[in-house]
Structures are given as C-alpha cells and as structure tokens.
Amino acid sequence: MVIVQPLRRRLGSVTVASLLLAVLALVLGPVPDSAAQSNWWEPSARPAPDAQIGVTGEPFQGTDAQGRVRGFVDAHDHIMSNEGFGGRLICGKPYSERGVADALKDCPEHYPDGSLAVFDMITKGGDGRHDPVGWPTFKDWPAHDSLTHQQNYYAWIERAWRGGQRVLVNDLVTNGVICSVYFFKDRGCDEMDAIRLEAKKTYEMQDYIDTMYGGPGKGFFRIVTSSAQARRIVEQGKLAVVLGVETSEPFGCKQILDVAQCGKEDIDRGLDELKELGVSSMFLCHKFDNALCGVRYDSGALGTAINVGQFLSTGTFWKTETCRGPQHDNPIGNAAAPEAEKRLPQGVDVPSYGSDAQCNTRGLTDLGAYAMRGMMKRGMMLELDHMSVKAAGQAFDILESESYPGAISSHSWMDLGWTERLYKLGGFAAQYMGASEGFVKEAERTRALREKYKVGYGYGTDMNGVGGWPAPRGADAPNPVTYPFRSTDGGSVVDELTTGSRTWDFNTAGGAHYGMVPDWIEDIRRVGGQKVVDEMFTGAESYLRTWAGSESYEPGENVARGASATASSAQWWNPFEDFKAHRAVDGDTGTRWASEWKDDQWLRIDLGSAKPVGRVTLDWEEAYAKSYRVDLSDDGSNWRTVWSTDVGDGGLDTARFTAAQARYVRVTGLKRGTQWGYSLREVGVHAAG
C-alpha cells in the first residue's frame, strides 16, 4: 500500500540503527541514565515561531504497583478532518512544514469577514461573520462554538500529552454527500480516498514530530497498531495514537432506494485495506443510513440538514417507528434548516415526525452483520455510537453470541441503556467532552457500573468533529481553574497556554482547542472532586484491555454443530423443505427447525458425551419464543434449568450461565411470540460463558 510500504522501510531503518547503537554501547560502556534520559520530552528543534506548551516537568513513565498503565484516553478525535469533506470544511491544519502561520490560517473564502462561511451558518446559526485571522491574534477562532476551525494543532496535542493523556484515537473522517453539496472544495469527494489521505497525513505528522525530537521513533506522537505496542508506548511515557474510521459510506456501502451498492467482496477488500493502513476501530454507519445499518438521528436544525443529506445520498428520508423497548434514538424534531433545504429538488420537502416515534426503522442489515464478523476476525473494535438503537441491539446480540469484547462507545452517542451490556462484554465507554457540571453528573450516574465491572472512564473530545465543546464558566464562577496547577500524577506544572499573542484561560475560553484538555480536566476536578479524575486516569488501561481482548479473540467451538437432535414436533406442510430438528444444528443459517403452532414445544440436542456447557446461542427465525428456558441433563431424563426468560424478542439470543458438565441440552418454548410455532435457524452450544 502507498502508506504501509514506506512505513515498513522506515521501521527497517530504525531496527538497523538500534542494532548499531547497541554495538556502540557495548564498545563504549554504559551511559549514565541521567544523560540517556535528559529532557527526552523536550524537542531539540521546535519551529520558530511556534505555539508554547505551558507545561513544565518530566512526563510520568512506567506502570503503577499493579502493573497497570496510567493516563487519560481520548477515545474520539479527528486530527486530520481538514483533509476530508473536500478539503475546505475545516479550516487550518494540525501542522505545516512551513510553520504555524501557514498551519493556523482560515479558509480563503472566509476572508475578509467570514460572510461566505456557509457551513458556519448551517451549523452555528447567524451570518457566519468572524475575524478570519488565526495566527498570531486568534481573535475569533478557535472557539468552543466555532465548528469549522482547526483545533488539533500538534503543539496543542503535545500539551494534552504533557498534562497526562496517554492514548488518543484519531478517527479518520469524511462525508461524501456533505463534500458534494458544499460550495467550496479543492479535491474529489470519494470517502475512501479521503480516508487514505488522512491516514497518510497522520503518518507524516508523526515523522514531522520525530524530526523535532531528533529522528525516527523519538517523538512523543506514536501511531500504534496493536494493544501490546500501545502499552509499551504508554509505559515509555509517550502518546499512543490509534487510527479509527468514522465515515458514512465505508467501502462504498451506500444504499439507494433501499438497494445496497456494495457486496461482501467490497467489505472484505475494504477491511483488509484498513488493516494495512493501521486502522484498529471503526463505525459501520455515521449520519446517513447505509447498506450496513441505520443511524441514530441528529436533532434540531443540524438534524434537518443531515436528513436532507440522507435524501440526497440515498433517495429516502429517515423513517421512524415507535420504539420497541426503553432505548430510543435522538428525537429528530422539526426544526428548519433553510440553507440545507434549498438543496432539495423542487416539490420535495423534509417530512415532519411524530414525537411518539423516535426510533429508526432500519437496523443492522445482513451485510452489516457480515462486516461486523469481518471486523471480529481481524481483531478490530466496533464503534457503537451513531448506530440506531435497533442496529445497536442487533450488534450487541452478535457480540454476546461470540463473547467478543471489542465494543466501544466513544462519545456519548450510544443509548445509555446499553451501558451494562457493553461492560459485561468487556467493552469500553467514554463520555463526550461536555461542560464540567454535566460531565461530572453523568460520571456519577454510571459510577456504580464501572465499580461493578472494575473499569476506568474515558472522554471523547470530538475536536474538529463539528460538535461544540464546553463553554467558559466565567472568571467569577465558583471554583474556577487557577494557574498554575499540577497534573493529576503530580509531576508536571500546567500554566496558562500562549499561542501567538493570545493567552488562553479556560475560565474565559472554555474548550476552544485541544490544548485546553488538561485545563478542562482540572475544571472537572474543581467542580466534581478528585474521584472523577482518578477514574479518568485509569481510562488508558481499560481501553487497552478492551483492545487486547479483541485481538486475542478466538471463536469458541460450537459442540452442537452436527450433533444428534430431536424435537417435540416439526412442521410438515412444504414437501420441498425439511423443518426437522437436525436443521437447527447443521451449521447452515439458511435452514431451520420449525415446530407445530403450539406453545409447549422443545428441541433437544445430544452432544454425544458430557461436555462443559456455559453459553447457548439461539438464532430465531421470524417465529420466536417470548418465554422459554434452557435445561441441561446428564442422562436425557433428569433435567435442571440453567437459564430462562419471559421477555424474548426474537433475533439472536445468548443464554449465559455458570458452566456445567452435561451431555444433553434442551430448549423449551413456553409461550410463543407470534401466531406461529417456534423456529430456530441455528442453536450453538459453547463451553465458555
């Protein structure tokens, strides 16, 4: 690949250099540790002029007494989104070979007064007018409510690292439809081309920072492709950068008038390419329904604008239904978005939506399930945020059926009702970078679950992600941030940040850019106390555990496949299809066992000999059981119930229980969920719960 091959050559050069250094060390003798480690965190050749860091003291290294890495994790950021959306939606760059003045400047069409900042008008309201000058004055941008200006300048990321952050997930992001309808662009709108470019630019940014620190591998910004590599980087005190993907039509998997525009071959080819690029996590859908899944809606005027994009992309607007459970998607509302609605064909209007129907009719498609399983085979983590609740519920069913831990909610877009299911799997949750009071309140609400499952907490800044960030609380607010303050580990001193001629005070600037992350964390400590921050400081460890679990995943043996099976009854109405019991264990989801249309029916599986049984998966056809139980037996006569439910809803179910030895497994339907009988495509029996 265009990126991976140069990367491998660089790694080869680093290896040779390391061997030469090792030989020299043997010849010359040991070097004093203080000389080898002297100010390793300070670049030797920072560009001048440049942004200051405002942090002194050596970054912490190593692990704690229990062998756990320490540090914060930002599970959702967009360093390179200025390269997406046609290249002119997000103004400014995270770095430039020509220096800070070139990196931190506005889009040309924003001059002289921002009156052509159309996306500002759509997302923020007002007339878009602002002072376009960035470096060195920064009068109007970046700002907590400016959605179109660069927030991820490398030195601001460096400040966050120096303040205690140790993992950063850089989600490569774009949207082909937004690109196509936006007035200003300097490149094409193919989503995969944008993803490739953003990955390339991230590797180049790593090289740029390495140069400042004296050569390959020496910089603080380290792209990682495995949890073990990330752990080593964090232990060294550096920043582990994980590549993710958040895009609306991955691999060309859009749908037009409900017809998928991709196939399984496109998905396999796309996933392989992403792995080659170094991507370790991804979203299956984002903003628009696609061929893989339905999305969780946006609200307000932005939601209406995105719904217009949905129509332009797919030929259909969002469709809603009454939610089937306590979880629900974001309410669409009926707010106007005049600039976006002008893009609709004449005579086409955005539909209105009832307040009692807040769930997307679209869930996880068969292609979406195939993509999920493809990610699992490759040890990738699935991002659940932006999935409709129907799609997320179906995704959880698959994850649970496989005991796959690689599930992430990175920025508060998953319905909170799924949180315990996430933690049970071994997944990781992060909260959106919101105002401190709200962040603390939500952290306290979910604390009992984190303590129950012994997990840390993360945040998702979503910088450059068109979301909005913490507004300033004001210099006269209770418990304001006072400068300087110490980092959470106590080893560094954080003072006010100066970039150009502007000095940033969190109390009056809020979450204006990435350099304010340490200040925001200090504000959380002031508002909510040390305990919340301590939970966040264990976030990197928990994230890496989830990632490691994904990488080590191996499908457990299904001991039911091909086993002997009998049933209380089987339908016989189609002379060309067999609905007998053995069809539920033949390994083919295109066949099924179907009972007579009665409540009390059972399917019994003989494993041939006693085996450990701790998990039973049931793939229901349309005719499912509302109430049923799972029984085990040693002899086929004496049964013990190990699991039951009376709220079955069909789809893919997983029954987990304390593993026990058994030769026979029986599924007994007690009450039907439909007018028909019970119908199972496949039953799996596994040892591990």
From TrEMBL:
Span of domain F5/8 type C: 552-688
Entries under InterPro entries matching the protein: FA58C (IPR000421), Galactose-bd-like_sf (IPR008979), Metal_Hydrolase (IPR032466)
Domain of life: Bacteria
Pfam family, any one: F5_F8_type_C
Name by which UniProt lists this protein: F5/8 type C domain-containing protein
Organism: Streptomyces griseus subsp. griseus (strain JCM 4626 / CBS 651.72 / NBRC 13350 / KCC S-0626 / ISP 5235)
